[in-house]
Design goal:
By secondary structure, the chain is α/β, with parallel strands linked by helices. The chain has helices at about 55-70, 110-120, 120-130, 140-145, 150-155, 160-170, 175-180, 195-200, 220-230, 245-250, 280-285, 305-320, 325-335, 355-365, 375-400, 415-425, 440-450, 460-470, 480-490, and strands spanning about 5-15, 20-25, 30-40, 45, 50, 80, 90, 155-160, 175, 185, 190, 210, 215-220, 235, 260-265, 265-275, 290, 295-305, 405-410, 430-435, 470-475. Helix content is about 40%, strand content about 20%. The strands form six sheets. Strands 17-18-16-15-19-20-21 form a seven-stranded mixed beta sheet, with helices on both faces. A hairpin with a 3-residue loop joins β15 (about 260-265) and β16 (about 265-275). It is globular.
Length: about 500
């Protein structure tokens, strides 16, 4: 039974392994969410390049909007789109797509950052944009594409959620939270870092006008209404279109003394700040300053995340091993803690393929025992992730001067009770786990506030989350000194 005043919204949430369209009812003290439609996201390698199958994803979005409309009784009060960052599609002068977007894990940016730094040293680049060095940041992708016929023919560049929004509405825009991951935004002003673009030869005219979370992004086109069976008009709202920006809105925190870890394929661990931290110490610690909702800064570090576990499971299944995740986690929980650990932020784990072998090799190189079976490998991965979470929380406090009293784990990893407990043990802080669907909830909250049924700022939206969402609490336990020793082992390259 839907509360009076609640209205139906669709959150399109595109992840690296799957996409979902979630149906939510928000307003009148209600915030409920359910999955309307899920579809796979299967990258394709063609001609030596790894691409996103963007048309298959768009088909999934259309089918998902149809399903959400049917589940909502035929009408939607709004649609919002969030996805991963940095990747983009190029359009020609007619608005046609010039090829499938390239996947950020493609190898085309190998060696490119060093070429960029010859034109703009990394210290100056960080001082201007505040962005963590990742080899697939948009500026490096554009540098890799420099001189290509496709880029020469392009008249518009749209980041992935903006591209989907454009196909739905016919209106082009560049949403700010995702734009801040391009390394072309000044986090102090929330505008383009024009001197950076000029030095690197990036044509900012390729980008559509900037828009912020809560801004109108158009209405579903007549052809989309026909395709989805929805009666119009259906507004599309700009949300925190970088999924982490939406996930941080979905953190059910009370007060400012919290850290968040948005877990999934990546772990994004950090703090919500009012202003960026652009110091040289921050750059050396590889922290990023991405823009969030309501003028906030997502001060965080990207950690490899559950990608390590996902890749291990994929390899074991391909080898014919029976690996049920729940059973593996139960068995891993019984294995000795911190027997072997690796640096979960090491770029060596970025590419797909042979992940169990690469983890074993990293243990061997560090003079540690190699995992002997899948359960030991899983325990190594989760202990290592917990250590990476601890390091990010400790470093973020030191660099920002902000004290943390509680850690919120949101996203898919909130379901992983072992990882949440290990994170509490490693950090020596209580962990609040949930909601798992923080990105979709943050997406919906921004829509509902723009459309009217939800009011207030981040504090009020988070209060609604605490009142309506199921959360689990983990208190730190275990041997704190053992975590200190394991952290020192990582700092020493695995030895000790």
């Amino acid at each position: 039974m839907t509360a009076p005043g609640a209205r139906p919204f669709a959150a399109v949430d595109l992840g690296a392994s799957s996409g979902r369209v979630m149906l939510a009812f928000a307003g009148g003290g209600t915030l409920s969410l359910r999955e309307a439609y899920r579809f796979g996201n299967h990258p394709v390698r063609a001609g030596g390049t790894l691409h996103w199958d963007i048309l298959a994803l768009y088909r999934g979005v259309l089918e998902g909007l149809r399903a959400a409309g049917q589940a909502a009784g035929g009408r939607l009060a709004g649609v919002g789109i969030d996805s991963w960052a940095v990747d983009y599609g190029l359009l020609d002068a007619s608005g046609a797509l010039l090829g499938n977007p390239v996947h950020y894990r493609d190898e085309r940016t190998g060696g490119v950052p060093e070429r960029v730094w010859e034109r703009l040293p990394p210290e100056e680049l960080y001082a201007a944009t505040g962005l963590q060095h990742l080899p697939f940041n948009t500026i490096y992708q554009l540098a890799a594409a420099e001189g290509s016929p496709q880029l020469a023919a392009a008249r518009r560049l749209l980041l992935i959620p903006d591209l989907v929004s454009y196909w739905l509405t016919g209106e082009a825009g560049t949403e700010l939270t995702n734009a801040s991951t391009t390394q072309l935004i000044d986090p102090r002003t929330g505008d383009w870092a024009r001197p950076v673009a000029e030095v690197l030869g990036v044509d900012l005219g390729l980008f559509a006008p900037l828009r912020g979370p809560g801004d109108p992004a158009g209405r579903l086109l007549p052809e989309v209404l026909e395709e989805t069976g929805l009666p119009g008009p259906v507004p599309v709202w700009a949300v925190g279109s970088h999924d982490t920006a939406s996930a941080v809105v979905g953190v059910p925190a009370a007060g400012a003394g919290f850290a968040y870890i948005a877990t999934g394929t990546w772990s994004l661990a950090g703090l919500e700040l009012d202003a960026p931290v652009l110091t040289e110490d921050s750059r050396r610690a590889n922290f990023t300053n991405e823009l969030g909702v309501d003028g906030t800064v997502r001060y965080l570090r990207n950690i490899m995340g559950l990608w390590l576990l996902q890749e291990c499971l994929r390899e074991w299944e391909a080898a014919g091993l029976r690996c049920e995740l729940g059973e593996l986690l139960d068995e891993a929980a019984r294995r000795p803690a911190l027997r072997s650990v690796v640096d979960a932020g090491d770029p060596a784990f970025l590419a797909p393929g042979r992940m169990p072998e690469r983890i074993a090799a990293a243990c061997r190189a560090g003079g540690q025992p190699e995992p002997g079976d899948p359960a030991q490998t899983v325990r190594c991965v989760l202990d290592s992730l917990a250590l990476a979470h601890r390091r990010a929380v400790v470093d973020a406090q030191r660099l920002s001067g902000r004290e943390v009293r509680v850690v919120h784990v949101v996203g898919g990893g909130a379901h992983n009770e072992l990882l949440c407990q290990l994170t509490a043990d490693a950090c020596g802080l209580p962990v609040v786990a949930g909601p798992a669907e923080a990105a979709a909830l943050g997406n919906v909250l921004v829509q509902a506030r723009a459309a009217g049924p939800v009011g207030g700022g981040l504090a009020e939206m988070r209060s609604l989350l605490r009142e309506t969402q199921s959360l689990r609490h983990h208190e730190p336990s275990g041997d704190r000194a053992a975590w200190d020793r394991a952290a020192a082992r990582i700092a020493d390259g695995g030895k000790g």
